[in-house]
Amino acid sequence: MTDRTAPVSRSSAPHYTWASVCDGWRLNDSPGLSVVEERVPPGAGEVRHYHNEARQFFYVLQARLL
Fold first, then answer.
1. How many independent structural domains does the chain possess?
2. For 27, which of 35, 49, 54, 62 could close a Cys bridge (C-beta 3.0–4.6 Å)?
3. Does the residue 37 lie in any domain?
4. pTM above the 0.90 mark?
5. Cβ–Cβ under 8 Å, residues 28 and 34
6. Alpha-carbon dihedral of residues 64, 47, 16, 54, nearest 10 degrees?
7. For residue 19, is it within any domain?
């Protein structure tokens, strides 16, 4: 886990791939706050799940959500 005190951009954030076609960037990963930017192409998506100790907020920039 990385404790960041200053905002970072996608160009400098740690990157990961999930579901073979989706991308994620960890903009902040601290004990009190985790901020992740993700790119999910059309037709891809997350498997329904829940987190015991976290709340999630989604801010969609461009999409059609089903």
1. 1
2. 35
3. yes
4. no
5. yes
6. 100
7. yes
